[in-house]
Each structure stands twice: as C-alpha cells, then as structure tokens.
C-alpha cells in the first residue's frame, strides 16, 4: 500500500494528534492474524491507533509498534499516537494509575499519547463474575487521570461516552481539562471531529485514508446532517433499577 501523509490537529494539551485513527475493537480475526495487518496499516501511513483494556488488543498493538520499529517503517515510537482507555472496573481514584501501568506493560510502552475514561460508569465483578454497578465518582476518577498526566504516563487525557452535562460537571472540578471527548469519515472530519475507523481489510484500510484531498459540498453536508442520529453503543446491561443510572436516558442525560 502506498503511504498516505495524514494531517494533524493540535489538542488543548499542546500535543498533536493525527486526524484519523485506526480502531482495534471487535475484530473477529485471531490476534495473531491482526498483527501483520496492523503493521501493514503503519506501512500505509496510519499513525494513530485506538485500543482499550476492554478490547483485549493492547498487546497486539504493542507488538505491531515493535515490529514496525524493527523493520524501519518508523524511526521512533514518537511518530505514533497511541490511545487506550480506562475500563469501568478501574474507574475510581486509586485504581486509575495501576490500570494505566498495566496497559503500558501490555503495550510495551513508557507512555500513551492519550488516555480516556471509557464510560462514566463504575462496575465491580463478584466471585461469580456477575457485574454490579457502583457509584461513579466523576471528580475522583478524573483526579486519578490527572495524576497519570502529571507523571508523564499519558501525554493527554480525555473522556469517552460523556454527555454534555457530565462533561460540564467534570470541567467544574478539573485542573487539567480533557483534551478529547471521543464520540461518514469526511463528514466527521469537516465537523471538526477525529474519525476512528475500523477495518482489517487491506483495501478498505487504504480507502479510509483517502479523505484528505477533497471536500463535501455544503449541500452534501446538509443532507448528511438530516439523517436521524442515534447512539451506536448503548450499555443496556449497565443501567437498570439497581444501577446508578436507571435508564439509557439518564446515562446520556437525555442526549440519546
């Protein structure tokens, strides 16, 4: 695949983030088969990779980084932008730092470029592996994220799946404001977003990078904006009568 040069955006942390990233969630391919495809993606020009504790792909992303370095596809780790996410079991002040250290161990890296709170939800698993939702401490969990940033283990920190109301609550208490609130490709880009694409098909990986040398017309943008929107991911198993959020409406503060 021919290498594509990807533009960057500057986050409020001052760090640069490539304007498109490759996601690693939900692939049905065995991890061993994903490795060469991730290396292919680096060869094609991808520099931003999105993983998470939940996805189980941190180790394979780290292996791809190491192989790309070994093969000279990149000159240094600093050429890449690696994002990972804090899972709900570790969403409390004293667990954030150990969770990131474990992610770094799996990735084989000294730092991540972006660390996100995956969901504004705290869960606990009992001995039978049943899930129990606990109270999510927005302020305390974010303080744990800020500590990761101060230690240089995460260059930037942010959130994922936060409603505007929850983001406002966080901002009222934050010392370091979130650099990102992570939420078709060119449309997302023109709205000021950073699309995270997911494909392990070589041709589609290449096609997903072909969005930087053209633009949608105002009419095309308007038509896309008229398409009814809905949440692509709703954790129905984490809301209910005995959970902190009784419904999806409450989780999203009406933004569903």
Automatic annotation (TrEMBL):
The record marks 85 as: Lowers pKa of active site Tyr. Pfam families: Aldo_ket_red. It comes from the Eukaryota. Residues 20-183 form the NADP-dependent oxidoreductase domain. GO terms for molecular function: oxidoreductase activity. Substrate binds at residue 118. Gene3D superfamilies: NADP-dependent oxidoreductase domain (3.20.20.100). InterPro entries: AKR, Aldo/ket_reductase_CS, NAD(P)_OxRdtase_dom_sf, NADP_OxRdtase_dom. SUPFAM superfamilies: NAD(P)-linked oxidoreductase. This is Methylecgonone reductase. It comes from Sesamum radiatum.
């Amino acid at each position: 695949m021919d290498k594509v040069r990807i533009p960057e955006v500057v986050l409020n942390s001052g760090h640069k983030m490539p304007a498109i990233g490759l996601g690693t969630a939900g692939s049905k391919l065995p991890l061993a088969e994903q490795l060469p495809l991730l290396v292919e993606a680096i060869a094609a020009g991808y520099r931003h990779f999105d993983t998470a504790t939940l996805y189980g792909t941190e180790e394979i992303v780290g292996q791809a980084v190491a192989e790309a370095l070994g093969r000279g596809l990149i000159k240094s780790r600093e050429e890449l932008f690696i994002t990972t996410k804090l899972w709900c079991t570790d969403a409390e002040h004293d667990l954030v730092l150990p969770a990131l250290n474990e992610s770094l161990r799996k990735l084989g890296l000294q730092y991540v470029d972006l660390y996100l709170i995956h969901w504004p939800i705290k869960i606990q698993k009992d001995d039978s592996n049943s899930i129990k939702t606990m109270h999510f401490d927005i302020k305390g969990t974010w303080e744990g994220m800020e500590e990761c940033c101060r230690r240089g283990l995460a260059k930037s920190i942010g959130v994922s799946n936060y409603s505007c109301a929850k983001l406002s609550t966080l901002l009222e208490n934050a010392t370091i404001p979130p650099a990102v609130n992570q939420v078709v490709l060119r449309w997302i880009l023109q709205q000021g977003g950073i699309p995270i694409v997911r494909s392990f098909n070589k041709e589609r990986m290449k096609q997903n990078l072909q969005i930087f040398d053209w633009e949608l017309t105002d009419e095309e943008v308007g038509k896309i904006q008229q398409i009814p929107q809905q949440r692509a991911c709703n954790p129905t198993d984490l809301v209910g009568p005995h959970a902190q959020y009784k419904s999806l409406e409450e989780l999203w503060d009406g933004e569903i």
